[in-house]
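Example with several molecule types.
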Amino acid sequence: MDFRLTDDQLALRRGTRELLEGRTGGMPPRGGLDRALWRALGDAGLFALALPEAEGGVGLGLPEAVLVFEEAGRLLLPGPLAASWLAAGRLGVPGAADGTSVVTALDAGDGVPVEHLAAADRLLVLEGGAGAQARLARPEELCAAPVRSVDPLTPLHRVSGRTGAAAVPGAAAVPGADVALLRREGALLTAAQQLGSAGRTVELAVAHARVREQFGQPIGSFQAVKHLCAGMLERVETARSVVYAAALTENEDETAAAKLLADEAAVRGARDCIQVYGGLGFTWEADVHLHLKRAWLRAEQWQNTVTCEESLAAAI
Amino acid sequence: MDFRLTDDQLALRRGTRELLEGRTGGMPPRGGLDRALWRALGDAGLFALALPEAEGGVGLGLPEAVLVFEEAGRLLLPGPLAASWLAAGRLGVPGAADGTSVVTALDAGDGVPVEHLAAADRLLVLEGGAGAQARLARPEELCAAPVRSVDPLTPLHRVSGRTGAAAVPGAAAVPGADVALLRREGALLTAAQQLGSAGRTVELAVAHARVREQFGQPIGSFQAVKHLCAGMLERVETARSVVYAAALTENEDETAAAKLLADEAAVRGARDCIQVYGGLGFTWEADVHLHLKRAWLRAEQWQNTVTCEESLAAAI
Amino acid sequence: MELGDTAEEAEFRHALRAWLAGALPALPPAPDPEDWPARRAYDMEWQRALYDAGYAGLHWPRDAGGQGAPPGRHLIFLEETERAGAPYVGAGFVGLLHAGPTIAAEGTAAQRARWLPPILRGEEVWCQGFSEPDAGSDLAALRTRAVPDGNGDYVVTGSKIWTSHAQVADWCELLVRTDPQAPRHRGITWLALPMDAPGVTVRPLRTLAGTEEFAEVFLDEVRVPAANRVGAEDDGWRVTLVTLSFERGTAFAGEVVACRRLLRELAATARSSGRWEDAVLRRRLGRLHAEFTALWRLVQWNVSEAGHTGRQRCTGAPGPGAPGMGVPGTGVPGAGASVFKLRYSHARQELYDAAAEVLGPDGALDAAADWTAGRLSSLAYTIAAGTSQIQRNIVAERVLGLPKGR
Amino acid sequence: MELGDTAEEAEFRHALRAWLAGALPALPPAPDPEDWPARRAYDMEWQRALYDAGYAGLHWPRDAGGQGAPPGRHLIFLEETERAGAPYVGAGFVGLLHAGPTIAAEGTAAQRARWLPPILRGEEVWCQGFSEPDAGSDLAALRTRAVPDGNGDYVVTGSKIWTSHAQVADWCELLVRTDPQAPRHRGITWLALPMDAPGVTVRPLRTLAGTEEFAEVFLDEVRVPAANRVGAEDDGWRVTLVTLSFERGTAFAGEVVACRRLLRELAATARSSGRWEDAVLRRRLGRLHAEFTALWRLVQWNVSEAGHTGRQRCTGAPGPGAPGMGVPGTGVPGAGASVFKLRYSHARQELYDAAAEVLGPDGALDAAADWTAGRLSSLAYTIAAGTSQIQRNIVAERVLGLPKGR
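Resulting structure tokens for the full complex:
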């Protein structure tokens, strides 16, 4: 056992952060999905991390993907990252690996609207349980209507007419991976993004609490604010330990634990950050609300709280 | 509407507190059920508050009973007060009103051990729902074994052999009140005791926080401790409003709300008080643990959290 | 203790109910929420109707043009109007609940005559100019300067934030610093600022809900006549506390009634959608039912206390002297109201979080849904009008008597 | 990152498992929990067996008689002994986890030779004399006085509290004040007190669980030779921090493994009793499964970090300089361990609260039930070894770099 980031992993994290901060200025990209940035991610090999080098990949694994997704989550990078990563790797969807093709996903039956449907080139359809194969369709084959999304950086479509996968009858089965596996990896990568967002909200809250003065001193010198921030960090660090572990063990329960705790760290972190920001946190201009809204969305995608808790209970 | 204590009610509360503090020194009576005190309560008319004056009672009602029970809860007065009060009033059990007879209760099916069985003169047996009549038995008719009670001031017996009311087949039906009504009033009077205990733990925590010094100042000057105490008071005041209201409206939902919130105020109040006390709160000598243990017991008796939440949900 | 209506209360309730049954169908359709002039017109028309029917300023003193009714009457009004689906106070909020009561308590006869009748008749709208970008929870840190020009005017420069209805207000109850040398809580003065004065700029502020409920108000050498000062110069902090106490007291009472209705709607939705089968969610709703039942009783208790003693209930272990426990005899609610605000803010957020569970991702992620908008705006409740952290300080120090300091 | 065993670790685990399979059946029956001499004998016998088998002081340095194994080896030891149902460290706790490592790090060669081998061989029991009635969370407020008598002895007077195993201990790691004039954190000295010295009185302390796990230790002019001082005079605070860091670091690792087992027992009970059908309770258990899974990973992470850098992981936004983040290169865990302690204390209380729900009133109100005793003792976790409030201060100030003060 040596549960620390290796030098290569530290370098990957640093490189990813530099790439993303260089292209976004370190702020959540307010313009939504940026295809040029998407291709840059592809060029940097981030979608193909887990592919063998012979197939044009980097030959790394889920632990590295988790680090990359954590960085993406930190900046609230808009786009169906998890679905595109799965398409590039397990499913070998052409163009997904180099970022020329954006792939979004519909999970039949979970009732979550589809993100970035209009901007996507392919739609991954998940239906059934272990043993079932994923299917692939063109986005326009899905009968869906736009929703005014709570997350301003993530357009959403609600499936209309028939429910779930039945709404895209023409989708073609993709050999290579069953839906249970895809769901697990999708949940883990989503948890990693939540972790990144949660970590970022601690940074934001702490930075604000150090400089914002009330009653003649930085608000961070008041225990009430200190303890809010300490609670945020406690949730981040706890979630981090199990997100990283799930990437190593690829275990189903551990992934559910990772998703559950990362969702909570992200949602509660963003809420506490708004509280520390006070009135400023209630404005559109501050980024904090974007973290909360994305966290709400990601908490519903790829296994929500109820699903995680029930599957964890069943696994005891 | 005038939702304030009347002068008579204030006087009753004051008188009850003086009576109880005079006989206990203001501390939870460590000796358990005190029959002399019980008779003194009877002499003071506290069990017969709601009986018409013609029947030897005081002609008052549930609101007054709630004030008396709150005072009893404040001092953790040991004994089956609610059952004895019901026996004295609704059921007219001889000797209950003047405190010469101690009456305890068994609710068939809720699985809660019977309190003070060995010291009791009568056993009230509740079984069935609205419309069913309560029954009365001699305590020794119940086949039960002593439990090492978590509350050192409240001996408990667990029904052995047959479950619930079937364990006292010889109990005789008592005309006068159906079990649903008795259960509601029992829950309200128990909530009132929890409220008293919760109020007392705020007093204890605040008094301790004012004098205990750490880091060169009273711990009550630290926000973390202040906010614990503020939360305790918040729960007490919220519970109080609905406990008093339920005594006036005699409404079933409102009683469930009263029990739910008073239970929570008592249990969490005692726990927070232990936290404020620090190591001292972990000792047997400090009274705080007695509040927690009694609160755990009372929270199970006469409608527990699950029952309250479900009946409240059903009533929305 | 008595929760039922007295004969007078029953009569009042009956008459109000009858009047509402006639008045509401005559109302025009509700305006577009983004159309501020239309909202003002709608709210003022409703206030005028209340005035004409004798329901304006129920809890205001008679000598201020109000009905002088005990506060309990106001609660009946809130219950009945909510039950009937009547409009909210809307643009009349600051005038009727903050500025008006302050002027009634502290203003001169001339000031009362000038400002109070138009508030009651729905003719003039007030907004609040208290908070500043660097003076939020720490209101006394405000820096907007007012300098007497020697000719009977103050010259005011600074900026205010979180001002509701500023776009359509006639007047702003403005706190300014008149003596920058004085200790923080001194040297503050309360002025009535005409919003059309030269130098006043209003800029809408977009909230995280995407709406423009609030505005920033910039003041650039705005001249305010000294006759617009309520209370003495440099005494504005005391005057302000009167107003703030009103805000922390009964201001949310109507919302509690509304939350009870929302909870019933939510339960009905859950029952019809099948979400009711989820015991975790169902019991959570049951708990919210207890919560809002208790909060309504807490309002009634506080109002009963305030009506008779001018003090909020403060049991527990009040500290010696226990400052800030309300102003006896004035009907001004005190620190006990902080208990209510703490609890209610949290309960409201819980209600909207539960709603997201009931509606599922489809509804909870839809920004167009009322529930989503409500969920977003509920986030302000633990911040606005004193954060929950500040409220806990108030409860601990002023009600429980714990020592100041850390 | 690697969670699997290395070849060496796998071999160690395999050998340990085999040894446990042979050693455990040979153990005598567990003693009566109230019989302290019997408990001491039992714990020491087990320690001796570990010593003979080469498992004593796994994580101690080789030059202190330990195995010099990386901390990960200690985690494997905890996992395997827990899985096999082996005894806990018991009376050996302070010696093996506090006093021993302190002496190993700070003692002279003679002190190491005198005290360390008997700890490893299970011959001598240590207890801890840090806390005092008026110095709990604020340990540096301790007042027990030690005055040099000029003949090479200290004369010690004062009292200590919350001392485990004092009734059966040979030695006490004692903090005393040697310079009352110095600032609070200076003027403290670390002494090894022989418990049989004249003037030492031990009085058992009854906890809310009704047991006598702790004692008060009264010291009345007790003579302690200067040779028993570890570290320099007045330097005891620094020496103490080393020990405290150990306590906050890996001390709870074994308990996390035990909690995972308790959770499985609880789920099995709920499944067979029908309580499993209660979705609220079931999902609560599911959440606890996530919690203890994560806590175990957090232990592994902290131990991996500590083994290589001597620092606990501290991400988030570490402050400039970030004091207290562990002592690089020493294997001493730092403030990051506070995150673990905060979370674990709460999770343990949650586990026992859930157990009360599973067992129902019949079990939860029975003081004779192990679960009830565990629930009561869990209440100490958010208080002992630094309250949760103190831990949050540490996290906020030392890890996140928020300003000291309020």
